[in-house]
Write a structure and sequence with these properties.
The chain has 236 residues and is α/β, with parallel strands linked by helices. The protein contains six helices and nine strands, in the order αβαββαβαβαβαβββ. The chain folds into two domains: 30 residues; 196 residues, TIM Barrel (Alpha-Beta Barrel), CATH 3.20.20.
Length: 236
């Protein structure tokens, strides 16, 4: 009788272990990636990320399997800081069949043409699948009119050399308060606005092309947090 009870106890223990393993596997598979942005677009959308060396070594094949369609990858911070992960990220994202765009953190107090040339040199042999981006989020101590002029110089240089229309990345408040009434709305807008509602679009734009909606996203293949974005349109 004791041996029967022991066998039943062992069978019960085994069943419990199997159940716990199944729960653990389910939780791992169900781990959220936060890829679902609020529904604000007029049509289809595609999820994406933007990265720099802060994300360390990225497993791009896992990122693609998680559903990411595009990535903006940092070339540099102005003239002085080349992103040490750019070359590897640029090549590995391409290998994973993720659409790529290069971006540069813009320092308006520095030479705009030289900054543009740095980005151009980084991608002139492989331009990527998306237009390059000027990341506008600091003043460098300059007044709005001067900042707008510097942005224009950068855009004109990149357009002339690469034959594409660069994207402007900014936030609604920064553009309103620090760049002011400059009309650069002929450039596609990538707006940064962390909200559960729809993003505010800074005047004079009337719509966004890309929207950065979170800076604390989690995506398989990336350690820690990553910025999450959505493209307003279809992307393979």
């Amino acid at each position: 009788m004791a041996s029967v009870r022991k066998r039943l106890w062992l069978l019960g223990l085994a069943a419990t272990v199997v159940a716990l393993v199944a729960v653990r596997i389910h939780l791992q598979r169900a781990a959220p990636t936060d890829l679902d942005a609020p529904s604000c677009a007029e049509g289809p959308t595609a999820p994406g990320i933007d990265v720099s060396y802060h994300q360390d070594t990225i497993e791009w094949s896992k990122v693609r399997r998680a559903g990411i369609k595009f990535a903006f990858i940092r070339v540099s911070d102005g003239l002085t800081v080349d992103d040490p992960e750019f070359t590897r990220n640029w090549a590995n994202a391409r290998a994973a069949k993720i659409a790529r765009g290069a971006y540069q953190f813009f320092r308006p107090e520095d030479n705009a043409i030289a900054q543009a040339d740095k980005l151009i040199a980084a991608i002139e042999n492989d331009k990527g699948e998306l237009p390059p981006v000027i990341d506008v989020e600091t003043t460098g101590g300059l007044r709005p009119a001067k900042i707008a002029k510097q942005i224009t110089l950068w855009i004109d240089r990149v357009r002339a050399r690469l034959g594409v229309e660069p994207i402007i990345y900014t936030s609604p408040d920064f553009w309103r308060d620090e760049v002011g009434g400059a009309d650069l709305s002929s450039q596609p807008l990538w707006v940064a606005h962390y909200t559960k509602d729809c993003p505010r679009v800074p005047a004079p734009w009337t719509r966004w092309a890309f929207w950065q909606y979170s800076k604390t996203g989690r995506v398989p293949g990336i350690k820690g947090n990553v910025d999450l974005n959505v493209y307003q349109g279809h992307m393979k």
